[in-house]
Design brief:
By secondary structure, the protein is mainly alpha-helical. The protein is about 70% helix and about 0% strand. It has one domain: Farnesyl Diphosphate Synthase, CATH 1.10.600.10.
Length: about 350
């Protein structure tokens, strides 16, 4: 009698990929200057300030999972994607270190951010070291030259998206200079989508995939990134601090031009919203008005649309069956997390 094996859950897939990648990630970080390696280890949740071992909460490992699954989608063993997984995880950590400084965020995953724990200068240095280590990791991998070019292009898009996000804060809520939904989508694709797409494409490239397959995975990952950012925007206003690690309404107090806000501002029901947004102490009132004006529903609908586009791209690309299924399940979970 044939036993039908149940498909692994998304949690099981993420855990398997983390267990595959973690030894190589720790080995790479261990090549850094000891002080810089400690800061990197702190950012990953491996240690406390001073180097004492810790088991602090880390990220889910989405990007490293995409790299491993990208290699498997190309028909290779997941281990072929490990250098890509290490590289994107290092770049992601580098971007978070610098993002926290730029945004003035004092905490990350319910602990002091690296710049608060070690100082701004050391945190910048640690971020720079992680970036350099990511490039080195790919450069010595098989097909390394093409992998470095792919990572460089993604980083250029990431910087472009981050620059737009920072500049959005200086623009008015309404009028001809307001931030449009189209500009938001472009920003989100660069800031969040570029690295997610790069992760899957890098894994596929190191797994021996052709350019068309790697490009399709890149585009699907970018769509996932926009959906991911949209959901993050919703969590930034209405999420549970115990889950998100961020204060309720933090994005509103920082006057961020998130999608729920932009969508609500286009509704006649939100006539008084700009005044609330300019008063940080009235964030709860602003959140209620944004929801009443349809901002929350619009952001979630937009996230579902981008997730559907990513699913279509994956379904139209010849991929190894098991890995394709895992990628599709990952899309759905990440686009609807903790809402």
């Amino acid at each position: 009698m044939t036993t039908i094996q149940a498909a692994p859950s998304t949690s099981e897939v993420l855990l398997r990929c983390r267990e595959l990648v973690q030894p190589a990630l720790r080995e790479a970080v261990g090549r850094l200057h000891p002080w810089v390696a400690e800061m990197a280890g702190y950012s990953f949740g491996w240690c406390e300030v001073g180097g004492a071992p810790a088991a602090a909460p880390g990220g889910k490992g989405v990007r490293q999972a995409l790299a491993v699954l990208g290699a498997e989608a190309a028909g290779a063993d997941g281990r072929a994607g490990v250098p890509a997984a290490v590289a994107v995880e290092l770049v992601h950590a580098f971007s978070l270190l610098h993002d926290d400084i730029m945004d003035g965020d004092a905490t990350r995953r319910r602990r002091p951010a690296v710049w608060k724990a070690y100082g701004t200068g050391p945190a910048v240095l640690a971020g720079d070291a992680l970036f350099a280590l990511a490039v080195e990791t790919l450069a010595i991998a098989p097909r390394g030259a093409g992998a470095v070019r792919l990572l460089s292009a993604a980083l250029a898009d990431l910087v472009h998206g981050q620059a737009d996000d920072l500049l959005f804060a200086t623009r008015p809520w309404t009028g001809p200079e307001r931030v449009t939904p189209e500009e938001y989508r472009s920003m989100a694709e660069g800031k969040t989508g570029a690295l997610l797409g790069c992760a899957a494409a890098l894994g596929a490239l190191l797994g021996g995939a052709g350019e068309a397959t790697a490009d399709a995975l890149d585009r699907a990952g970018r769509q996932l990134g926009v959906a991911f950012q949209l959901v993050d925007d919703v969590l930034g206003i209405w999420g549970d601090p115990a889950v998100t690690g961020k204060p309720v309404g933090g994005d509103l107090r920082q006057r961020k031009k998130t999608y729920p806000v932009l969508a609500a501002l286009g509704s006649p029901a939100a006539r008084g919203l700009p005044a609330l947004l300019d008063s940080p102490d009235r964030a709860p009132e602003a959140a209620a008005l944004i929801e009443a004006a349809g901002g929350r529903a619009a952001a979630l609908a937009e996230a579902r649309a981008h997730t559907a586009t990513a699913r279509t791209l994956l379904s139209q690309t010849p991929l190894a069956t098991d890995a394709a299924g895992n990628l599709l399940r990952l899309l759905d979970v990440l686009a609807g997390r903790e809402l």
